[in-house]
Amino acid sequence: MRHARRPRKRFETIGVAVTALACIAFMADGNVPGRGAYGENVSKGLDFIAVKLKEVREGGKGAEEALKMYEQAAKLAPDVVELQFWAAVSMYTNDRQAEALKLFRTVFGREARWVPLIPRLAKAGLFPDDAAKIKEVQAVAPKGAKW
User: Which one of 10, 14, 100, 119 is most buried, counting C-beta atoms within 10 A?
Assistant: First the structure.
């Protein structure tokens, strides 16, 4: 029996999911960009995910759908700060800035390590490349937080 070839898009989706899962596992063990034995791997993984997300956004598909999925995932796994972070990014980039800033405040209060990712997302085209907007988001981080 001959098997049909899986479309490339499915492979890319699985690749993003596996990369995200690996990054979460490394980060749960204390490896974050710039810190830990696998910090560089996490950094590369996050960059890969960012590029793939940019491709989806440039294709004009999925922004609202992605936001819905992040919101649902954050409700199902409230202890996973990363899901809340990406939900906040999606909100901010989809004209829901006030709501996003509240969620960023929560995220940064729990894990300030997400604060320096904002300018990197801007460079990757996943966040407005606007210094005032980057500063606005970073300003909601708790005072004195190390990031």
Answer: 100
